[in-house]
Amino acid sequence: MTVQTFFLIGIMTLFNFINPTVNTTDNYSVLYTYENFEIRKYNSLILAEYDDDDNQEFSVLADFIFGGNKEKQQIPMTAPVITTMKANPTMSFVMPFGITNDNCPNPNNSKIIITDVSPRLAATISFSGYPNSEVCESMKKELIETLTSLHIDHKNDFELHVFDPPYKTFNRRNEIVVSINI
């Protein structure tokens, strides 16, 4: 590969003309859409969750899927990466289709928990850019206001879903998601 080809691929990747391989697990059906707001029915999911005060959630979960498990099995990276929006957030990687509780590799790190999430109804609001606490709180507030105006009760279990790697600079996809009662 020539230097020019390498440089061109780097520029195209940086500006998202070429997307890296990431499996998106859009495991839901859309029931209602209005602008950047949706009501969805999520199917069950298997999550690898990590909750600790060391701010190493992503690194620890990445080690697990890159073979840091008792079976030394690599698991494809999926999107979204889910982080709960509570005082002590939990980060989760969604396991790809085909991974079940029965065949999911056993984590080497005892703080990684494999969780089966039941089907649910949820409301989402999407936004682009890099999610920070100020932006996420603003979008959460907008989602609450939308739900209130539609007379929809929520379960206050807000999550941030991030779909893109940190080096993607344009057209980033993020969502605030909350379970709802209808």
Verbal overview:
- With 182 residues, the chain is of the alpha+beta class.
- It has a single domain (21-181), classed as Alpha-Beta Barrel (Multidrug-efflux Transporter 1 Regulator Bmrr, Chain A).
- The protein contains 3 helices and 12 strands; from the N terminus they run αββββαβββββαβββ.
- The chain has helices spanning 3-14, 57-65, 133-149; strands spanning 23-24, 28-34, 37-42, 45-50, 78-79, 81-84, 91-94, 112-117, 120-127, 153-154, 159-162, 174-181.
- The strands form 2 sheets. Strands 2, 3, 4, 6, 7, 8, 9, 10, 11 and 12 form a 10-stranded antiparallel β-sheet that branches. It has a two-stranded parallel sheet with strand order 1-5.
- A hairpin with a 2-residue loop joins β2 (28-34) and β3 (37-42).
- The radius of gyration is 18 Å and the shape is globular.
- The helix fraction, in percent, is 10-25%
Could you give me the name of the CATH homologous superfamily? Regulatory factor, effector binding domain
Total beta-strand segments: 12
CATH architecture term: Alpha-Beta Barrel
Write down the CATH topology. Answer: Multidrug-efflux Transporter 1 Regulator Bmrr, Chain A
Tally of discrete structural domains: 1
CATH class: Alpha Beta
Distance between the termini: 56 Å
Radius of gyration of CA atoms, rounded to a whole number: 18 Å
Overall pLDDT level: 89
Structural class: alpha+beta
